[in-house]
Amino acid sequence: MAPSPNRSPDTLADRPVASKRITRSSKLFKTILLAIQEKKGEDIVSLDLRKIPEAVSDFFLICDAKSQPQIRAIADHIEELVKEKCGEVPYRREGNQKMQWVLIDYVDVVVHVMLPENRTFYQLEEMWSDAGQMKHN
After folding, report:
1. Residue 50 sits in which domain range?
2. What CATH number has the domain bearing residue 40?
3. What is the tens place of the pLDDT at every residue in 70-103?
4. Residue 6, exposed/middle/buried by CB under 10 A (0-12, 13-18, 19+)?
5. pTM for this model (two decimals)
6. Are 60 and 49 in contact (CB under 8 A)?
7. Is residue 94 part of a domain?
8. Residues 6+ apart with CB under 8 A from 72
9. What are the Cα distances from residue 91, in Å, to 13, 33, 37, 71, 88?
10. Residue 54's Cα: distance from chain center in Å?
11. How many structural domains is the chain composed of?
12. pLDDT band at residue 104 using 50, 70 and 90 as cut-offs
């Protein structure tokens, strides 16, 4: 479906729709979690958004990184491992220039790799407090 001429192609309406619901035991979810753990991401939390009608994804996976180089290493490793093990590439990746918060959108799962101060400021876990939350460290 082509975007409307009056609308940017980067709107939520143009985002692919998930083909099926996933779980924490799904290969994509487990692969992303493994990639974060292999690069020493900290305070890893998943938010289960499946029961929230307004949610654009089934899960958020959120983690801290101590530095900008670590953010890049985690984000790059996620993409490499998911492509290798699941054959998927992200729909979108944002935040590469400032490297304070990188978002990787796999449609079913959206990954947030953040500096601790950004995570504290934006409080994603609080914003999505209706979601089921699980720690993975």
Report:
1. 23-135
2. 3.30.460.10
3. 999 999 999 999 999 999 999 999 999 999 999 9
4. exposed
5. 0.84
6. yes
7. yes
8. 96, 99, 102
9. 14, 18, 22, 19, 9
10. 17
11. 1
12. very high
